[in-house]
Amino acid sequence: MSVTPAERATIARAHESRAMARARELGASVLGTTSPNPAVGAVVLAPDGSTVGEGATQPPGGPHAEVCALAAAGERARGGTLVVTLEPCAHTGRTGPCTDALLAAGITRVVVAVPEPTELAGGGADRLRAAGVDVELGVEQAEAEDGALAGWLTGVREHRPFVIWKAAATLDGRVAAADGTSRWITGDAARTVVHRLRATCDAVVVGSGTALADDPQLTVRDADGRTAERQPLRVVADRKGRLPATARVLDDAAPTHVSRAADPAALLAELFDRDVRRVLLEGGPTLAAAFLQSALVDEVLLHVAPKLLGGGPSLVGDLGIQTIANALAWTIVDVTPMGGDVQLRLRPTRHTGGRPHADGGS
Ligand code: ZN
User: Which of 35, 69, 137, 326 is a Cys-bridge partner for 277, taking CB atoms 3.0 to 4.6 Å apart?
Assistant: First the structure.
């Protein structure tokens, strides 16, 4: 049986879709190491659809994902397709333009999820098309934007880092018992996830209240419990200068920034200037409330333990909400059983009515 052109196109699409899913994974695998650059993934397919090269963005100053994937493919890239989560750059920054590398390698088709949003690096697709390359933009764009590129895109669009609020609570939303004890509300599995999550972020933020009450070290430990080589910036929001010099967060295990910023927006501006693009908010109820009231939480990772306390501080402090219509609304992205606990991943519900997050309120 001969294969018709239509069937051939369908088969090529399937190969490209599989490669795009892999490119998203590759991008996610380098989160926490690329800022202020985007965490991009790229896959090179040979003309027969087989994968011949993979790459992801290297730390600043290092090669981009496309160049890594082309290097892995070598001569096998000739006549092939590059599948990539972000439009290849056309400008010379600390590295040469990826468009030139693609042309030199003999790539004939480029499949892109997210068109480049900045003017500086833009024009890649036009340049490739002018050289005769078949370029398709916007393929599975939403999936790529919600994944590893979310933090970088927030930086481009809003000039601030992407904020993930991580919290652990009981069924009745308590984060500690009446006597203040909180270790450990959730089990080992949830705590392991927190260390992996910290490693994907550029900064971990707590308030001085949490630093005083729990004296956390806020470092990333690897699977063996040792301090990991790469550590996110530790940040303490300490407007009133209450943090004692003996706090564990000030030890030499990782860099620390103590901020006197007056509000969450000012704190995020400080971090943005330090090339931070992904922030993990681990503060207590007071700091969480401040970020929520400023509409500066982009994602919530909530670990719920099947326990009841009936008293003690609740997950979030007073939000100034008097009636149910004004409740902050969240959309569940996924629910994951985690040891004996459950993880909820939430994003703000962006619609009109109530008190929308999208208005950037105060
Ligand atoms: Zn590039």
Answer: 35
| Matching fold, domains 5-148 and 161-359 | no
227-244, pLDDT tens digit by residue? 888 899 999 999 999 999
Give one DSSP letter per residue of 255-291, joined into a string: -EEEE--SSHHHHHHHHHHTT--EEEE---HHHHHHH
Cα–Cα distance for residue pair 359/182, rounded to 1 Å: 35
Structure tokens at 156: 């481009």
Residue 5 corresponds to which tokens in the numbers above? Answer: 């052109």
C-alpha angle 355-359-362 in degrees, rounded to nearest 5: 80
Q: Which of 16, 54, 66, 140 is catalytic?
A: 66
Residue range 302-348, pLDDT digits in tens? 999 999 999 999 999 999 999 999 999 999 999 999 999 999 999 99
**Backbone dihedral angles phi then psi of residue 208, each to the nearest 5 degrees:** -65, -25
24, 141 contact by CB (below 8 A): no
Distance 201 CA to ligand 1 centre (A): 22
54 is catalytic: no
Q: Long-range CB contacts (< 8 A, 24+ apart) of 62-68?
A: 62/95, 63/95, 64/37, 64/40, 64/88, 64/89, 64/95, 64/98, 65/23, 65/26, 65/27, 65/40, 65/41, 66/40, 66/42, 66/98, 66/101, 66/102, 67/95, 67/98, 67/101, 68/42
Which regions in the chain score pLDDT beneath 50? 352-362
What's the gap in Å between 75 CA and the centre of ligand 1?
20
Domain 5-148 sits in which CATH superfamily?
Answer: Cytidine Deaminase, domain 2 (3.40.140.10)
Q: What is the spatial distance between Cα 173 and Cα 175, in angstroms, rounded to a whole number? A: 7
pTM above 0.70, yes or no: yes
Please give the full DSSP string across 196-238, using - where no structure is assigned: HHHHT-SEEEEEHHHHHHH------B-TTSSBPSS-PEEEEE-
Q: CATH number of the domain at 161-359, please?
A: 3.40.430.10
40/91 Cα distance (integer angstroms): 16
Centre of ligand 1 to C-alpha 45, Å, is: 18
